[in-house]
């Protein structure tokens, strides 16, 4: 089953995208800052979400890890 049809997998993909974009933006800010519009602007927006909501994102990642570990 793909991540598009399973809600838990879709949430996992979104969380990983946000966390990865925030990490890449921390290491190489010029890569995401020059692509703020268009299709690649999605990555810049995900990096902003990850930076500004980092306590909530880490809580969501922890909850997702526990739910995967327990097999929910």
TrEMBL record:
Listed name of the protein: Protein kish
Topology in the lipid bilayer: Single-pass type I membrane protein
Any Pfam family the entry gives: DUF1242
Main subcellular location of this protein, as a coarse class: Golgi
Function: Involved in the early part of the secretory pathway.
Signal peptide: 1-26
Subcellular localization: Golgi apparatus membrane
Keywords, comma-separated and alphabetical: Golgi apparatus, Membrane, Signal, Transmembrane, Transmembrane helix
Annotated coiled-coil segments of the chain: none
Regions that span the bilayer: 53-71
Record-level GO cellular component terms: Golgi membrane
Record organism: Thermothielavioides terrestris (strain ATCC 38088 / NRRL 8126)
Family: Belongs to the KISH family.
